Fold this sequence. Notes:
Blueprint: H1 2-37, H2 40-44, E1 70-78, E2 81-88, E3 93-97, E4 103-104, H3 109-119, E5 126-132, E6 147-152, E7 157-161, E8 167-171, H4 173-185, H5 198-227
Antiparallel strand pairs: 1-2, 2-3, 3-4, 5-6, 6-7, 7-8
Helix pairs in contact: 1-4, 1-5
Amino acid sequence: MARLRIMQQFARWHIWLGWLVGFPILMWTVTGLYMAARPIEEVRGDQLRAERSVIDPAAVSFPSTLGEPIREARLVSLPSGPVWVITSAQGSVWRYSADGSAALPPVVKDEAGRIADTAYAGKAAREAVTYFPPGEAPNDARSKAAVWQATYADGTHVYIDDATGEVLALRTPQWRLYDVMWGLHIMDLQTRENAHHPILIIFAALSVFGAMLGCTLLFRRRKARVKA
């Protein structure tokens, strides 16, 4: 009788846990199915990305008068030609001409449009180029810096860093929907990057506990039927 009462208590817990975690489990399943069913190459828009131009080493010379310690120097290919992207020891970022002769100003609207057109290999027309100050870029840019957003008629967005002219991201409508699904999957719709937070851990733990109870009850019921 004691074992029967324990199993009955397990059954009640299983029912209440089912009501509590039923929606998260359904959400995880639906979002996981969507993400698994979409080819990641299409989601990333690989077919819309143009190949980067080759940089001629003979035309490159490192800047000799930076004036302060640097943390990083990268050579980046832009429509106007290669440039040096310099990060100082204090974290500030600026760009130099590839021959090292002069520092270059931040990207302006026309240049942002040309950079986006070079990075985008699709056939849709460019509709707009929009500037976003630091901290105000759309979530799909994944950047706290000032950025330019080039919008194309097929819904593609190309994001360009205002300081360096680098292409930060190419986002298709499929990617944006995929990103929402991912945010739901990890229960983080704000940044869509944090999969280590208490809400997700608690619901996942409750789901595991509920599944274990269900397996225990299933085993007990099958054993009872065999005895009958």
